[in-house]
Structure formats: C-alpha cells, structure tokens
Amino acid sequence: MYSGIIDRYRVLLPVSEDTKIISLSEGNTPLIALPKLSATISPYLTLFAKFEGLNPTGSFKDRGMTLAVTKAFEEGQQTVMCASTGNTSAAAAAYAARAGMGCYVLIPQGKIALGKLSQALVHGAKVLAIEDNFDKALCLVREICADHPIALVNSVNPYRLEGQKTAAFEIVDDLGYAPDYHALPVGNAGNITAYWKGYKEYFDSGKSANKPKMLGFQAAGAAPIVSGSPVAHPETIATAIRIGNPASWHGANNALMESCGHIDSVTDSEILAAYNMIAAMEGLFAEPASVAPVAGLCKLASQGFFTEPATIVVTLTGHGLKDPDIAVSSANTIPISLPATRDAVLQAIGY
C-alpha cells in the first residue's frame, strides 16, 4: 500500500525512524504524456505533465505540508499558521486536521478562489481575510509565529521545500532520467527552488545522470522576478501566483542561474488560451496558474527558443476544480435547456 512521500523517500528527508508521520498518502502523482500539445507547440518537443492536482487536497502543496506538519507535531506544536492565496490554506487545514492540531489562515480579502476557501473552511481552519494582499499577509504571519508558539507552514519553512523536492525524485524515477527542461509556474517561488534542489540531490547521489534547465513563468501582472523588482499591487486571473514579492526569490534565482534556465511572463489572455488548449487537447483540467508554463512554452516556441529535440516536464500545480468560476466563465459551450423528449435531444445533438 502506498503511504506517502515521507515513507517513500525517508532516507532523503529530515525524519527519523521514530518520527510520527502525518500523511494523506500524497505524492505518486502521474506523469502524463502530452502528444497533441507537443505537436501543436513545436516539432522539437516531447512534453509530459506532472499532474499535481491529483494530490489529496488538489495541489502540489500537500508534498510540503505533510513534512511541515509532521515536524511541527514532532516538535510539540499544537497549532499551525499560514498566509495563502488558496492552495496552502487548503493543505495546511487538511494536514492540521489529520494531526489533531489547530490551524489559522490569513488570506487577501476577495482574492481567493472559492474552491480553495471552501477546503480551508470545511477542514476547520480559522480563516482571517485581511484588507491587503498576500505579501502583507505573509509579513503578518511571520511576525506572529516568531513571537508565539505557532508553527509557520508557509514555504519559508524549510521543511516545505524538503517535501516538495520529492516531485523531482518521482519524475526521474518514472522517466528513468531527468528531462532536458522543467517548466513551472512561479508565484512565491518555493516550488522551482524545491524542484531544483531535488534534481541536484538525485544527480549528486548518482540516481540521475543529468539535470534539467529550469523554466519559470509568472503572470504579466505579477512578475517581480522577471522585472527585477517587487510588484506592489499584483493582478492576474491566476490567483495562485498573484504574488508581488516572492519569499523564495533568492532560491528561484539560484535555480535559474545554476541550471542555465530562463524566466519569462505570460499575459492573462495567454494563460486562458493555454487553459482551454490543454483541457480540449489532452483532457487535463488544471487551474489557471498551473498552465502558465504551457502558455510560456507556446511563447518561447513562437520566438524560436527551441531548435533541437528536447524532453520537457510541465508541472500542473493544481486541479481545475480549485477555481470553478474561471472554468465556467471561459468555457466555449454552455448547458442547453430543452424539453425532456427524445426528439428534442436528438435535434440538439444533430440527428
């Protein structure tokens, strides 16, 4: 029986044999070939999606949260706290509930997708909506946790990144090698930092003969790393990456520099086009932030960035059901109302 990433990669994580693991059997997410998308974007590319939306709470955050909450529990903490644009709050609330711990969440008021907010609430977290953005929420959480016996479980907690690096391990284990490129959305920048850490550790241990070039993509309205300075009022439909001053900025820059990678931005219209394209072509339903790298690959390919065959893994960070309002508003079709008769149905489907 699969029991989660800590059991699977215990020797590569900061736990002991006596550590009580708080797990929801996260990880082991599928690596899905994308042949139609590959052919559409560039004849040089072979694309795979690491679909992290199939983690227990629907996003990659579960990988880091299982370890962060496990260590908080091991250290005797009774409460966890985070700032969130949505997915972190869902994961923190779920794993805290699993551990029997309390959970406080700070969110930017009116700036969180309903699918994510509902998860935090149903798991019993106390959700506080502040009249400011994520960056201010994170500042407040860091101050409070520094002065009170509350475990901070944002990605500034190093255990979060230790858990998230296991996705890179799984990719190498599934492919048998590291891809030529790995493309991710970049918001708070913890994930690109963690993946690079994982790839380096597998390479250094001899489990992988190569390391990928890291490709990061931010939304144009929330692209501080691309522009080189914080964004005071970040705006994008991709709520998960609506962050103006990433906590792991330095880690992301290191990953990009050390891997000879590249970071770029994509517009909301490019994100929506990619969102509908991957759903229609490959049957994968991912939240808007997840498809920023798909939009980014389309952009780079149109600029002649890829000139020789390459294998690329794209991380789809969260499930599309996280943000159902975007799905409904951007869909190319709507439900058709008609009488409950055979003839009406046949006419509607063209028979």
Structural overview:
- It is a single chain.
- The chain has a 6-stranded mixed β-sheet with strand order 1-2-10-7-8-9, with helices on both faces. Strands 5-4-3-6 form a 4-stranded parallel β-sheet, sandwiched between helices.
- The model has no long low-confidence stretch (mean pLDDT 95).
- α4 (87-99) runs parallel beside α5 (114-122), α7 packs across α9 and α9 (190-204) packs across α11 (249-258).
- With 351 residues, the protein is of the alpha/beta class.
- The chain is globular and about 65 Å long.
- It is built from 15 helices and 10 strands.
- The longest helix is centred in the middle third of the chain and has 15 residues, at 190-204.
- 42% of the residues lie in helices and 15% in strands.
Key features of this structure:
351 residues, alpha/beta, 6-stranded mixed sheet, 42% helix, 15% strand
Structural class: alpha/beta
Count of DSSP-assigned helices: 15
Q: Assess the beta-strand content as a share of residues.
A: 15-25%
Shape: globular
How many DSSP-defined strands? 10
Strand order of the largest sheet: 1-2-10-7-8-9
Query: Which regions contain 5 or more consecutive residues with pLDDT less than 50?
Result: none
The overall average pLDDT, rounded, is 95
- Biggest beta sheet attributes: 6 strands, mixed
Q: What would you report as the Rg, rounded to the nearest angstrom?
A: 20 Å
Specify the helix fraction band. Answer: 40-55%
Order of helices and strands: HEHEHEHEHEHEHHEHEHHEHHEHH
Distance between the termini: 48 Å
